[in-house]
Design a protein that fits this description.
Blueprint lengths: L7 H11 L4 E7 L2 E6 H17 L7 E5 L4 H12 L3 E5 L5 H11 L3 E4 L5 H8 L4 E4 L9 E2 H4 L17 E6 L9 E5 H15 L6 E4 L6 H14 L2 E4 L6 H8 L3 E4 L1 H15 L2 H9 L1 H15 L6 E4 L6 H9 L4 E5 L9 E2 L13 E2 L4 E4 L4 E5 L6 E2 L3 H7 L6 E9 L5 E6 L4 E2 L5 E2 L1 H8 L5 E7 L7 E6 L8 H15 L11 E4 L19 H12 L6 E4 L4
Parallel strand pairs: 1-11, 3-4, 3-5, 5-6, 6-7, 10-11, 12-13, 13-14, 25-26, 26-27
Antiparallel strand pairs: 1-2, 8-9, 9-19, 14-15, 15-16, 17-18, 18-20, 20-21, 22-23, 24-25
Length: 552
Amino acid sequence: MTTSYRSPVDMLNQWATTQGDEIYLRQPIKGHYQDYTWRQVQQAVQQITGALRHLGFVPGDKIALLSKNCAEWFITDLALMYGGYISVPIYPTANIDTIRYVIEHSGAKAIFVGKLDHWPDQEPGVGGDILRLALPYDTMPAQYQWLQLLNLGQPLLEPVSPTEDQVMTLIYTSGSTGKPKGAVQTFGAYSWTCNAVVRDLKADGHDRLLSYLPLAHITERVAIEGSSFYAGCAVAFVESLETFVADVQRMQPTVFFSVPRLWTLFQKNIIDKVGSYKKLQTLLSIPLLGWLVKRKIHKGLGLDKARLLGSGSAPIPPSLVHWYHSIGLNICEAWGMTENCAYSIINHPFNPDKIGTVGKPIVGCQIKQSPEGELLVKSPSLMREYYQAPEATAAAFDAEGYFKTGDLCSVDDEGYVSITGRVKDNFKTAKGKYVAPVPIERKLAQDPHAELICVIGTGLPHPIALVQLAEGAALQAREEVRLSLKETLDSVNPHLESHATVDAIVVVTEPWTIENDVLTPTLKIKRHVLEKAYIDRLDGLRGNRVVWEDEL
């Protein structure tokens, strides 16, 4: 770690002193911004921390936070840091079992509850034994409301001043392969990573950020919240799903991060407005008109002022990145994990020749490959351990302190990294051959009718691809969609090894959601859940067919 370490608490105090009257947080309420200056945020942080002291909580206590993104999420997070508490964020979409597990496993002594879409369904997971503190939104019953906390006890004017090796937070993984694990992250690791983001993206006080991806996920906590701490820039939030586009257009972010599924949805909305993919491509090919169309698209998305776009959390189809590049929007793909503060590798500055890779390691991050091709990383951003899981911690690191990511990779001559699959995703077919599903899924994803794809095949003669259709495709004639998917399958199979060729595409009829446990809170597919649900029904499918689930 560096000798220039400064915690988020130090940065808050700096900005409150040097630009205290400038707007920091912008919370939309019924279509209008409720703004908080840096000084107002500092005062609220001191008061919330004082209220926690008044309630008997002491430094080192763990306190959970269950809410969608909002200004008070930032204020609460800073208050927990200010008072020396350990934050335990929980995804706002988490189900009862996950909420209960995280609270019990972490040993949280209180929980802040805030903006939630379905809080009555989640309340049993919180239970009645833990003290509830409510953010100022329609949320589950709590012993203390936000306004009460802002007037409870005396403000704590002197922060704890957390040290580098002090534990800042327990970040629970999204649980794509089982129970979530709690990654123990220190102030030093978080600070180092946030500073690396600000350094690499050249963020400063003139930038405008939008926070809408879950703050319980480390990516948003570093890339958006952390950038604001260390660059001193303003952050706006999204009021609801219905106001999303309007909220983006109003803030006009200069830096904007999203996930593959949303980039796909944006593309679909653009094409739907024009009428068809072919018509859009024709318009874009006409010199002056093409420039005007691109400009209108940028403005319509609210990204006409964006100088940097990013994608992470899951693989994004190269064809989608190429498409955005063709309309003048360059999406920098990045790679990271909960265990390394979500930032280790990035394709930035954007290199169109390296679309399909996740870029090169950032300064300060070392990578290597295991003999099996697994990506191993080492940097100051690595977690200390998995909470209360010494065996899992020991298994996660090699003898030199490199973290075993579980991702399979290839590295080209220029140092650009491509993720080729997951170690645990590879499955063995009935022929005794191992198949890596992720590269196959990325090839099939070139078909615009497919929104989500999961290739499975444990014990089958050949892999089968499960496909969830894009919203627009679900409204098209079935035979038209079938023909397109069949053409895609026929174009992909000749380029696969014989044992990995896909026997059939099965279009699922029930959407994959967080609620039915197919998707994690970060929208990753739980492959093991789909394997269990479908594998017995797929044996016997042959001949490069495309069938709907109700046709089986």
